[in-house]
């Protein structure tokens, strides 16, 4: 089969021919229908050799931590899914045994690091291939009639903002404001989730006019270029008090200080982006009772919920499809900022 693999540190990924894997006991082999391209892949491919191998990632590694497929073959003992089922992959694999996993919160598994359990495409062989192995049917959720190419990215670009936003919903009733920084793959879905679930006015920042146009297209109430004037504009738009919740889908040196500085008293700042930013804070530097969090991905039940939002027509991922052979170009386009929404590999 063909697979899009990261084969050498610092080099662009390549399409290679490898044998179709066979499912071991308890595993499931999927015929992949779609695999989404995430900025985190770019982050992983930007790690030094020491950092990359230090994470326990294999080389070569098939990319893709957003996956959807049709169940193709069952490993011994698997009986909760059937050959032919259309499924989406829950990517943050955990042990299934610890307290967090028992609640479907495998993204916060307390045993995964020690046991070497890693997500597909982020330490395990991922979804950008004609077939992929899923280690346990627990890591599949039913996709049903949803189009896999349109919806595969809900497994990360939907689930991650959904998880982040759900924590702040009690603060986002009618008359409140939410700020979204970065209207890319995650951000443009986050805007739709905020509009669907909260009463907040959604103010979106990006550095790219086309991304702000996409933000308006998916329902943003206000859009602003993310520059030195943005803080003042957000304060103006919020009557001087700031935003009740800020979601930073960039996480860079320029954005995290901006995010905390526009959070209202008792507001939430959620940093999702892995952009190398940080902020020092103490009394006098941020508003009273601002809560700051750094979430990772989301819970299994939340993936089912975000797919239900798509079924209800409340979330529509803007997709740019690429063939597997064109996969390297998808990553080049992501790096140059020219993807509108999410790039998806269709094998
Ligand atoms: P993306 O490239 O699709 O989108 C990023 C957007 O941010 C683009 O629209 C870009 O123009 C915009 N941007 C860049 N610099 C900006 C700035 N200074 N101010 C405002 N906007 C700016 O990326 P993505 O796939 O949506 O991922 C977003 C981030 O989230 C990445 O850092 C990724 O690694 C991270 N991520 C984190 C998790 C998690 O669990 N915490 C999960 C998935 C992705
Ligand atoms: Zn991701
Ligand atoms: Zn666990």
Automatic annotation (TrEMBL):
Q: What class of enzyme is it?
A: oxidoreductase
Report the EC number(s), separated by commas if there are several: 1.1.1.1
Question: Keywords for this entry?
Answer: Metal-binding, Oxidoreductase, Zinc
Matches recorded under InterPro entries: ADH-like_C (IPR013149), ADH-like_N (IPR013154), ADH_Zn_CS (IPR002328), ER (IPR020843), GroES-like_sf (IPR011032), NAD(P)-bd_dom_sf (IPR036291)
Q: Identify which cofactors the protein needs according to its UniProt entry.
A: Zn(2+)
This enzyme catalyses: a primary alcohol + NAD(+) = an aldehyde + NADH + H(+); a secondary alcohol + NAD(+) = a ketone + NADH + H(+)
Q: Which SMART domains match?
A: PKS_ER (SM00829)
Q: Where does the record place the Enoyl reductase (ER) domain? A: 10-345
CDD domains the record matches: arabinose_DH_like (cd05284)
One Pfam annotation reads ADH_zinc_N
Per its UniProt entry, which superkingdom is the organism in?
A: Bacteria
What family name appears in the similarity comment? Belongs to the zinc-containing alcohol dehydrogenase family.
User: By what name is this protein known?
Assistant: alcohol dehydrogenase
Organism of this sequence: Frondihabitans peucedani
